[in-house]
Structures are given as structure tokens and as C-alpha cells.
């Protein structure tokens, strides 16, 4: 029962340290750290309010010495206080409000055993912890208590930086005898079959695989189940697989190196998505004109009890759907599909066509940037289902939408890796009445269609909040991840959160790539970034905001994004060339290109590498001399390269 407890200390608690008092900074006479009641209840569930909970604590006595002393938790009004030790060492001269108190507690013994440390904001372990999603609870609570996998990363960081206090969790495990302990085929199949996918999310996972292999045409066949049974085929024109690579792809959890733009994560999607819907998975792939196929079949696994794939010919019924016309491509065939556990019901529409419609709408939403050519480093992708083209649905696209400033934050949970950039942008949608007025001339059906599109087939209130894009693929949307409640007055507000593979661990992207967690730093950055957007959304909801001016629009109704929250034409050299609502992004930069971005940041400039290897240089919008220079050379690539080289050299001299 080992818990990890985190708290960012306040002025009133730092009186526990004599060094803080000696500097004359003490605010109150409190000599203890506050412990929230819910934290104590989780760690010590049998403790009564009248108890004094004793804990034998290891702590840093000074820079070289670790001491052990007994401390205790004692109930005080609404919370508990951690008392019994007020270190006198000058070692704690660094303590300031906001420093991090980290503690591990073994609550399974009496007295409990613990190690604690206070970490200054300047320490690299501070950033490694608060940048990671495991600490995200601190965005909404003053203290969190984590257990097991909830704090695996934090435990590793503490063990690496404070080995005298915390055990390292990176030691090699003892050798074991694994004979006869390989996973049982049917048991494993049943686990995969219950990963939580419904049909539309499973199909989206399979489309991820097609996009990752550079497919531009994805054709999905899903015929009427009353005419030949329930089956589906997802076929693409990607680069295909050789027989050897097909075997690797069909292997459960096969380790592989992922391209920075690859939408996959755990080598799980193909099998997990397929088995969640069907008892038989067949993959047909063509590479350099050579066709191969392999099949996982549940009946065969059950009958033989062995991990064996089949490679027989494709049945004639599925031959056309799995036929690959070009020199390369892949077809994923799902047969013996299980019916949905819940039959969708729409008045006047049969359940099968409702299913098809739901998949069409889902793919149009999650892949809208790929379908319109707005995904960075990708050509436009076409997806069809039974010959019907998937229509993209950008959830913030409307001519009356008000975009707000982009914000970028850096997260670094691993000292050996480059920081991950996460981009935030708030959008305030038009009200229902504004939409009706805007589309009135197009007829009642057009108005209804636009309202349904923007509400994502539900209620606007349910779809306010955060829209997470991983490599331009929408993976999670709606709700505020505990940062705010779903307020009727902010239902028009949507915030896009863009990140790439480097932020997967920091945001704890789960195995299905449909769930994320926010670190405390990201949660606070989001709160700060959406202040104006929330105020704007409330004003628009209440009818107090000025009527939005109609911007110049293209044929598709797209509007430019500006850095001043308005709808003016973007100016060269500003961050307005980063994102646009509904319209295509600018052509992806080749690896030798330089891209400057004017953003709000806490340093004057910072360099990083983009998805395609291009150099990205972010300039603080308040550093006017450099901003003016960047704007002046906006159309001169050689000058941009020279400036980038100069800044690189200057960085090296400043850091020497």
C-alpha cells in the first residue's frame, strides 16, 4: 500500500522551515503542511478524526545527510496537518511558495513509513513531474494521492533524482522461469474483443493504419448483413507489406519503430479493433506486385489451442472487395462479425443504414483535417463507404466563428528528450439564432443540417470543451477534463489542443488512443488560455457581444485565423499562418526549410524540429526587434536560413 502524495506549498505552510522564517518571509505561525481530508481518507481509510496518525519519515536533513524522524498527521478543522518536524538546516533556503512537496507513504504498516522531499521550481525533477499527466490532479486540487500505475512516472523521477530517499524503479527484475506461461489464445482473444470499441471507433482505428502507410484512397465495403452475412472490408492504396512484414503486423504486440507521423502507438490497433467486431480477421497486402494474406480465426484458435495463422485462398464472396488494383495496397477483411450490442433506433431509418450513417459521420469528424488536406505533411485523403464519400466536419468551422489567440506551451517529462510543444486555441461558435439567420436564405433543411453538424448530432452543451488532436487526428472531444463544469453559458466555446507523438507519455494517451490526461501544467495553461474565450462565449450566449462581422470567405466558407481574436486578414510573418479554420494549411515545409512563428512565450526565441524535419523557430511577440526582422525577410528563404544559423550560434555561446 505505497502511495505517492503531491502538494504545491503555500506561504502559510513554509513556516515549517526555519530557513524561511529566518529570511523574514513567514506569513503565519503555522508549523505544519496541510493534508487534504480526501487524501488522508484514501491513504488511511480506517483513521478516525480523533486519531493521531504516526509516520516514520526519511527526509533531507542537509545537502549530504538523510535523517529519519517520527512525524504525525493530526486533524485540524477541515483538513489534517503534517506536524512534528521543523528542519533548521540552511539547506532549505530555497523554499518559496509553489515549490513541490512530494512524499511516498507505505500505509500498510504501523507506524506508516515515508520519505518526503521539497523540490524547487528550478529543479529539473519539478518540471518532469508537473509536465506529466500523472500530476494533473493538482490543477483542480491542492493535493493528490496516487497509487500504483497512477504514479509510475513520478516514482521513477523521484528515484532517479533522490536515490537516498526513494527507491529506484528501473532495476532489472530477477530472472524467472516462463516455460508454459505464454498467453492462452482464446483468453487473449476475448480480452482484445472487449477493449471498448464500438463499430465506428474500430473502423477509425483501422483507417489510422491506412493513413500511416501513406494511403490517399480508402474504400470501405459494408454490405447489408441480410444479404451474405455481416462483414466489412477496409481497402487502401498505401505502400503495402511484403509477406515477411505482414507476418510482423499480424503478431500480437510486435515491437517496431514508429515514424514521427505514424498514428499508431502500441502495435495493437489492427488486432484490437478487428477482434472487437469480428471473430475472423484476414489481411491481404500487395507490395511490388506480390500479394500475400494471413488470417486469425477464433474457431481455429479454440480448436487447436495454438497461436497459428491461416493462409488459405480468399473466398469468392470477398474477392472483389479485397482485390488490390495497383502495385501496392492493403485490405483488412472482417468476417463472422458480431451484431451491435445495442441496435441504433432512428424513426423511419432501418438499423443497418443508421450504422452506416454513424460511421460516415464519425470518420468525417475525426479525420476532417486529412479529408480537406489540412493535416501537416499529408496529401488529401479520400474515404468512401459503399461508394459514398465521407464528408469532412470541422467542429469549429463556421463563417461566424470567432477564433482567439493561439497559445503554445512546452512540456518536458524526460531530461534526455526535447520538449514537446502543445498548441491551444479557443473558438467561440455562433448561437443557434445566428446560425438560423445566416442560413435562412438556403432553406429550412440547410439550417437544420448546419445545426446538426455543429452540435455533432447531440447537444451543444455536451460538446463544449477540449478537442484533442494527435498528429491532426481528433482523438477526444467534449468536456473540460475536470478543469471547468459544463456551463450552459459557455456551451459555444471549443478549444483545440494539438500535440504529436512526443507528448504521448506526458498526456498518458491510452492504448486505444481515445483517452488522455492533463498534467497540472497543461491544465493551468488551458485555464489561462481560455479566459478571454470563456468571457466571449458568455457574452455571445447572453446576446451582449457585438454581432460578428462577416469576413471575406472562399468558396468553402473558410475564414482566416488572426492573432488578435478578430476576423481581419492575417499579416505576413505572424502566427496567422499556423492554423486556419476549414481552409487548407500552407504546403508542408521540406526538411531544409525554416519556419518562423510569432507566439506568446516566456523566452525571446526557441528552436525545434517539425514533423518533417524542418526547423521551427518561435519568436516572442513582445521581442519587437526580432519580430520586425522576421517580418522583413518573410519571403526570403536564404535570409531565413542565415538568421536561423545566427540564432543557433548565439544559443551556443549563451549556453557555453
Mean pLDDT: 84
Shape: globular
Q: Numbering strands along the chain, what is their spatial order in the largest sheet?
A: 2-5-4-3-7-6-1-8
Helix content: 25-40%
Q: Give me the number of helical elements.
A: 18
pLDDT < 50 runs, ≥5 residues: 550-591
Report the sheet-strand fraction. Answer: 15-25%
Query: Structural class, please?
Result: alpha+beta
Report the major sheet. Answer: 8 strands, mixed
First CA to last CA: what distance? 46 Å
Number of strands: 23
- Backbone CA Rg: 28 Å
Task: Please tell me about this protein's structure.
With 656 residues, this protein is α+β, with helices and mostly antiparallel strands. The strands form four sheets. Strands 2-5-4-3-7-6-1-8 form an eight-stranded mixed sheet, sandwiched between helices. β14 and β15 form a beta hairpin. The chain is globular, with a radius of gyration of 28 Å.
Topology readout:
Elements: E1 2-8, H1 18-22, E2 33-35, H2 37-43, E3 52-60, E4 66-76, E5 79-83, E6 100-106, E7 112-119, H3 124-130, E8 143-147, H4 152-161, H5 185-192, H6 199-212, E9 217-221, E10 232-236, H7 243-250, H8 269-275, E11 278-287, E12 290-297, H9 298-304, H10 316-322, E13 329-337, H11 351-366, H12 368-371, E14 382-385, E15 388-389, E16 402-411, E17 420-428, H13 432-438, H14 444-454, E18 465-470, E19 473-477, E20 493-499, H15 520-529, H16 531-542, E21 594-599, E22 605-609, E23 615-620, H17 624-632, H18 637-655
Parallel strand pairs: 3-7, 9-14, 18-20, 21-23
Antiparallel strand pairs: 1-6, 1-8, 2-5, 3-4, 4-5, 6-7, 9-10, 10-13, 11-12, 11-13, 14-15, 16-17, 17-20, 18-19, 22-23
